[in-house]
Amino acid sequence: MRTFRLTLLGPPGAGKGTQGRLLANRLNIPFIVTGDLLRREVAKRTELGLRIANILQRGDLVPDELVVALIRSRLPIRRGFVLDGFPRTRYQAEALDALLAEHHTKLDAAILLTIPVEEAVRRISLRRQCPRCGAVYHLETNPPKNPDLCDRCGTALIIRDDDREEVIRHRYHTYIENTLPVVEYYRSQGILLEVNGTGSIQEVWQRLWSLVASRLHIT
Ligand code: AMP
User: Fold this and answer.
1) What is the pLDDT of residues 2-31, one digit of tens each?
2) In the chain, domain spans
3) CA 181, 104, 34, 19 torsion: positive or negative?
């Protein structure tokens, strides 16, 4: 059966988590979210978790070697995947190419979701997340059925530590500085698919899916 290896790029609040989950479900492949993997390490209070807790809180990037090691141990290369949050630097992008090449395969596409910074701040300030299953809600546009509880697993929802306005702006800058070179890296490989991330979840999903389906010849 045909499978796919995809990654989603874009600034914080662009909708990578929401659209990535829809895409992974549609293609029936795992959705791998590096931010969630890292937050889980922090919650478990492992040695790694303690090392990275402050970095996450500041909105800086976790060191490349560490994230690459995490991806190496977690990426279901044979089964296919949708990645959210990786790669975020040129070093990580090259490490991912090398890892896939070891398995005689490569990335099919990198999907870039774009939104203006003010829209990112507006979206993220009303964001709530389930610490257990990773589901993401927005109090206005995608509210949970029971206020404060996850629809999928019933866990109490939280506001992420790094979802405060000044940290969001810092994360946006981190994106411009470190991750825009990754966008150019994939553009030069000819596998970048650009999607306008503004509008409702359904509007963005329709835009994204029609582009992905036509470029990857999915019927
Ligand atoms: P996210 O949930 O994707 O917004 O990621 C939250 C935080 O996790 C980021 O602000 C970084 O501190 C860290 N992080 C996630 N993915 C990566 C990555 N590929 N490289 C470095 N740090 C990462």
Assistant:
1) 899 999 999 999 999 999 999 999 999 999
2) 5-115+173-216
3) positive
Tokens representing 78 are 């044979």
pLDDT per residue over 85-136, tens digit each?
999 999 999 999 999 999 999 999 999 999 998 998 889 999 999 999 999 9
If one residue of 38, 40, 58, 179 were mutated to test the ligand 1 pocket, choosing by the most ligand atoms within 8 A of its CB, it would be 38
Q: Work out which ligand 1 atom sits closest to the CA atom of 16.
A: 3
Measured distance between the N- and C-terminal CA atoms of the chain, rounded to whole angstroms: 14
Structure tokens at 215: 């470029």
Q: Whose CA is nearest to atom 5 of ligand 1?
A: 35
Region 5-115+173-216: CATH code: 3.40.50.300
